[in-house]
Every structure is written in C-alpha cells, then in structure tokens.
Amino acid sequence: MSLLVAIRGWTPEPWIARLRQHVPQLAVVSLDDPFDQAAVRYAATWKHPPGALAGLPNLKAVFSLGAGVDHVLRDPALPRVPVARVVDADLTHRMVEYVVWHCLALLRQARRYARQQAEHIWLDDRGQPSAREVRVGIMGLGVMGAAAAQALVALGFDVAGWSRTPRTLPQVASYAGQAELPAFLARTDLLVVLLPHTPETLGIISTPLLRGLARDGRLGAPALINAGRGGLQREVDLLACLADGTLGHVVLDVFETEQLPTDSPLWDHPKVTLTPHNAAVSDPDAICALIGRQIDRLERGLPLEHEVDVARGY
Ligand code: NAP
Ligand code: GLV
Predict the structure, then answer these.
(1) Which pTM does this prediction carry?
(2) Rounded distance, CA 92 to CA 311, Å?
(3) Which of 18, 52, 235, 291 could be disulfide-bonded to 284 (CB atoms 3.0-4.6 Å)?
C-alpha cells in the first residue's frame, strides 16, 4: 500500500521525507517516478497536473497540502473520494501575522514614512488616526478570517466580517450573503480578503464591489489586502481603481497568474505592495503529521477531519 505525493510548484523532497517519517506504515511514492497505481491508497497534492490522480483504483482519500483546495477541485478527472484540506494552528498563525502586519502598515502609513526617511523629511504630523477609528472588513470569516479578526480586535480595530452564513465572534460585526454585502462594504476602510476560490467567488474583487467601500474613512481612500486567492481579483480593475482613487493602496499575496509575470504593471506600481504567495506557508512537519493522523483515523473507520464540500468548492 502506498501514499502518492503529487506536487507541482513546490520542491517535493521535504514533503516526501516528512511523509516517510509520519506515515511509516505506507510506502511513499512520487508522481515523478514510476509507481504501482493499484497500490496507491492515499494522495497528497499541491497543484497536481489534472488527470494525475485518475486511474488509481484503490484510492481512498486525497489530502491538500494547503488550506485551499481550488488546486485540487479544478481537476475535471478528480476521483470521487473524500478530499481533506489543512487546518493547522501554525498556518493560521502565519496568516494572522500577515494580516496584522499589513493592517498596521496601512494604519501607520509605513510606505510614506519610508519615503520621508529616504528624503530626510521631518514633518510634524499629529493627525495619525488610532486603530479604533479604522474599520476593517474581512471577506471570509472561516479559520483564517476568524483568527485574523480576533487579532485585529485585540489591537483595537473596528472589525466586521462577511461570510456565506452568519458567524458569531466576540466584537466582530457579522454580515452574510449577497444581501448584506453592500452594508458590509459601506462600513469598510481596509478590506481584507480571505475567501476561498470557488465558482461563486471567482472574480468577486472587481470595480463594482470596490466602489461600494466607505469613502469617509480616516485613511483617505480605502485599501485592499488579498491573501485568499488570485482568482478572486480582477487585476485590470484593481489598476483602474488605483488610478481613479477608488482605492488608495493594494496589498497582494496572490495573483491571477502565479508566478506574477515580470511585465505585470503591479510590480512597479507605487500604490501596490506585493508578496510571492507566502502569506501563510505550509510547514511540512506539521502538515505531514496531520496527514498521518488523518490516515490513522480512516484506517480505524473514523471520518476524515476538515473534509471539503466538493460541490460547494471549499
Ligand atoms: P475556511 O475556513 O473554509 O473559510 C472560508 C470562509 O469563506 C468562510 O467564512 C465561508 O463562509 C466564506 N465563504 C466561502 N464562500 C463564500 C461566498 N460565496 N460568499 C461569502 N463567504 C464565503 O477557509 P480558511 O482556512 O479560512 O482559508 C481561506 C482561504 O485562504 C483558503 O481557501 C486559501 O485560498 C487562502 N489561503 C491563502 C494562503 C496564502 O499563503 N496566501 C494560505 C492559506 C490559505 P461560511 O463561514 O459561511 O462557510
Ligand atoms: C496556501 O495558499 C494554502 O492554501 O494553504
């Protein structure tokens, strides 16, 4: 019996080594080497090539190596077996760091002060708003969004969240569904996007949505932070919204095309901050241990944890 590692875009070797440690009862085989298809019982994937998991007659479950599963579900030949995603304290913590870093950088105008320092400019600026005067709106109030919301509440920000179904979190105003989206946007100065990429959320971050953001915030124009998925955003719209003042700044960890093409205008835009899809990186040790526990559960006849609703897309 074996566990198939099907990875593209990341280096597979550390994953293979950790899986051998954490799942010693199975042979760990790689998509990149010949393997016996009938022996494969489980697959661990990050962006596997579509069709790569077809033709595995004894496959019992698929494990995403990340929190998102769009890279798994986009495979039209995906076998009809349970799919589980990563829910891991370390991964969540890293995303919280990312969101807090950029909300504070926007609140405290980090880019402006870096420019002023470079030019030796001392301005006696006493107009700095406090966090409680800034309204953060988080689209996606799941594992990542809820943890980020709590950290921002602790810093004093005025926080709301938007999700498919209503969520109850201390000191976080909850908005749900399309009907409540306009009200959520209208009270948002810093929009943080932590949604999954699904058929429903594809391209949601577009000009009409961004025009719904608050125009009376203490930071001037509203700002966007997207660490969810690049497929959520329309980059031409982001550039148009920066040009006409609908947005004052954009922070992106994810892009419509990854790697971001070297000729993308986003690279050099003075109102754009970029990171290379590493807001929250999966720690191979923690995630391979999780997969080990999941396999133990299945082998004991227990249900998977964090199973994805394939029809819903997350
Ligand atoms: P999650 O726990 O599944 O939460 C997803 C949230 O999105 C839920 O609140 C859900 O609403 C909401 N949602 C989904 N579809 C919606 C819709 N159509 N309208 C409104 N709300 C909708 O996921 P998570 O663990 O927080 O992760 C979120 C995403 O972060 C992942 O899917 C992945 O794409 C991204 N991510 C990125 C990185 C990175 O490094 N950039 C790292 C990890 C994860 P309900 O609560 O009503 O279900
Ligand atoms: C990273 O993008 C993840 O989905 O965990």
Answers:
(1) 0.98
(2) 24
(3) 18
